[in-house]
Structure formats: C-alpha cells, structure tokens
Design goal:
alpha/beta, Zincin-like, 4-stranded mixed sheet, 3-stranded mixed sheet
Length: 212
C-alpha cells in the first residue's frame, strides 16, 4: 500500500488488488502528518484561483483574462481583442468560470493539435485513422489498436518540443502498440533526445496551473 500526493490528482491511496478496504483507514491515520504536509506543500487546501492570464506555450501565446459580471445565468467567452479573453456571466461562481475556461482551452486545442498531428504524420510517414481531443487526467495522449489517437487538451500549456514529442510518441504506437525496444527505436529515429523529453514530460505534470 502507498500514498501518492500530486497537484493534479490530490491525495491518492493505492492498495493491492486483494487487500481488504478495512486496512486503508488505519494506514491513512498512521501517515496523517505526512499527508497534511503534502496538502500544504501542494496547496491542495487552498481554493483554486481564477487565472488573470493564460500561457498557451505550445503556440507561444499569452492571453489576459477578464471576468465581467452579468445578471443572466448565461455565459459568454469572448476574444474581445488580440490575446484578450473576456468571461461574462455570474462570475462569482468560480467552478462555472473554470468550466468556461476549460471549454475555451479545448477549442484552442482543436484548432491546433489535429493540424500539427497531420503535419508530423506526413513528415514521418506514420498514418493514423482519426484524432480526438479530450481532457484526460493522467495521460497526455493514447493510441488505439485501430490507429485512433486521443490527445489531451492541456498539451496547449506545454512547450512546443514536448507537444511534438507526445505526438511522435503516439504516432509510433500505430506501428508498435507497446513500449518494446522496437517501439523506442522507432521513436528515436524521429526524436533522438526522447529520453530527455520524456523526463521533462513527467516533471511538467506537477507544474501545471491550478485552474486546469
């Protein structure tokens, strides 16, 4: 049994498959001081703040965000000027504002990621069937046995070189649906420094802004 603490997933208790659930509470109680320290370190006890700015690092765009109160229950998300986003509605509802921002991020990802995937696919000669944009909690991307690729909309917040690596990684899965030596050799043929990029990808997961 172990306890993980991550900003994106909170506190997570992982137990072996056949371990009785009655063992969990005493284990958590035993490690309560460590858990409290991690909650404070990661800011899990603080409410999520609405961002005043959003950096779409993948496309090197910095957006300012303005929240304007509206009396109706309807919401508007307007790009009112160059790199300026305006959220209109009952903005005292933080959770609702976050949902609006998430939808906007998904829209940006749909504009950019499929076109980039298509470009890399043609460059590498690695075909895929279709692409979808989702909001996975623990994966940057995935590839099915039928060659259907799913990409995380939060990729828009990562530097371009990491986004490119994720897309190459998933395209290589259209040839090898595993992480065998043959798979990594194929990745290396297109991205020689993939080991470094893979380490960076693991690090940035915990550095994403709280609102996502």
């Amino acid at each position: 049994m172990r306890i993980n603490a991550r900003r994106d997933k909170g506190i997570e208790v992982v137990i072996p498959k056949r371990m009785p659930l009655s063992c969990v509470a005493p284990f958590v109680q035993q490690h309560r001081h460590w858990i409290a320290a991690q909650v404070e370190r990661l800011g899990l006890d603080r409410p999520v703040a609405l961002p005043a700015a959003i950096c779409l690092a993948a496309v090197r765009e910095h957006w300012s965000v303005e929240y304007r109160f509206g009396c109706s229950r309807s919401w508007q998300c307007l790009e009112v000027s160059v790199r300026h986003l305006q959220i209109r509605g009952p903005v005292e509802d933080v959770e609702a504002c976050l949902c609006v921002l998430h939808r906007w991020l998904r829209k940006q990802a749909r504009r950019f990621l499929p076109a980039l995937l298509d470009e890399i696919s043609r460059r590498c000669g690695l075909d895929y069937q279709r692409v979808s944009i989702r909001s996975q909690k623990s994966r940057w991307g995935s590839c099915s046995s039928k060659g259907c690729i799913s990409l995380n909309d939060r990729l828009m917040l990562l530097p371009f070189e990491l986004v490119e690596y994720v897309l190459i990684h998933e395209l290589c899965h259209t040839r090898h649906l595993n992480h065998s030596p043959e798979f990594w050799a194929l990745v290396a043929s297109y991205q020689p420094d993939y080991r470094y990029l893979d380490r960076q990808l693991g690090r940035v997961q915990s550095e994403l802004p709280g609102w996502v």
